Amino acid sequence: MLRRCGARARHCWVDPGGQIVGRDSVPNSHLRAARKALRSPSGSGRPMSRQELADACNAELASMYGRQGRRPRWAGLTEKAIGALERGEIRWPNEDYRWALCTVLQTDKRSLGLYIDRPDNAKNDELPEPTEPNSRHQHKGMTLAHPRPEIYEPESPQTSQSLDASGSPSQWRAGLRHAVLARDNGQVLLPLPELEAALQVGNLAYQGAQYSKLRQLPILINGAESLFAEQPKAVEMPRVARAASGVYLLASKLAAKLGDGELAWTTADRARCFGLIAADPARTAIAAYQTACALAKQPGRAAEAEKVAVTAAEAIAGHQLYRTPAYLSAYGALLLHAAVAAARQADTRSAWRHLRAAESAADELGRNGNELWTAFGPTNVRLHQISVAVALHDNKQALRLADQLDTAQLPLTLASRRAQAHLDLAVAHSATDSSAPQAMLHLLEYERLVPEAIKLNATAAGLITKLLRREHPSRTPGLRALADRAGVQDA
């Protein structure tokens, strides 16, 4: 038996499960894209299925009910229910289901396309679908039906503006540099909700170390610039600026991953400018974080990286919204970077001081979150404690800390963070020749978790080279095969 919603939702009803059911269904491409951006927990490498998403949500709900000591209000999500959500047949699941979906997919309701029914005067946090299914957009002189396949489906044919997913890191760097500095590919008109949805998919792909899914990043850069140049209504300006800032933050992350510190700095600065236009201090702080990351990629600039991170952390700590999850996460992430930068200068005292401050922020946050794509929380602090110990060449301390680490506490999306622990432990074990087999095992686990990262990570390449130079084939079988897969030349 359905009952009609209030006046605010003019075309929907509430079913017995407390969910809003739409009369005129519009497919929810946001939710579908977020699900497909996650890998299956089975280890098959395929996208997460609807059933697997339902199971993950139900597990989170069971954990929450257990902590709160209360009984479940609903029967639980099913594959059929996820399908109904993705088809747009259900637009506003009950409160518990909304929480579970946002927790598993590590984003918010607006980014997942969940809403009741957007009236004409809706606020920005009430996101409808980008357009009706029969609407059409102009793209480089061609008419394309929504949704734009090359934005949502990374397996689509390569365009003139995309990065070559099969190319070498140097080719990726050249392509991204051209997209950022030249921008001579003409105007790309992306509706703002479509840009936001594609940006969400891109961030999920980055955190999952699925870098081949970022090959359409030049289109997002061009789209963000074009959208901003159109001078939208004043009420939309902050939202457009936030999206543009997000695009350049993602570009900065990829540039840093590719080892191009100069380009990472340029894109971080653009992200900061758009963050200032949006009057969004938390986003501006994350731009400072990326600036520090860019400096850290350049020889001899660790001290500058630490200073940038600490200065930005102090600024965010003085903000009136400091104790909100987003601001706490930005503050904590900055301190974690400052700690690593201090460790690289052999400044043990400062490194652990920054870590203690970050740990206090994580305790106040109280969960392993992913606000502003920072992955900040108690478990990430522990991961950075290991990184700091390794940077300080205190390998025994790193191994002791690893015994207390449970990476299963991290959100499912954070494959890259989870894998970092194995890379750090591989470095720690490589300090002695007798531990080469353990180092090799951690490298193989790193590759298993993030197979696309092994070719891009300079630390992994250096470690493989080090092991090759003192190779004992009987103790490290498979090392040369790993070197081939990582693109490391025979030492």
From TrEMBL:
Entry superkingdom: Bacteria
Q: Where is this region: Disordered?
A: 116-170
Query: Could you tell me where the Polar residues compositional bias lies?
Result: 156-170
From the Swiss-Prot or TrEMBL record, give the protein name.
Uncharacterized protein
Q: Where is the composition biased (Basic and acidic residues)?
A: 116-126
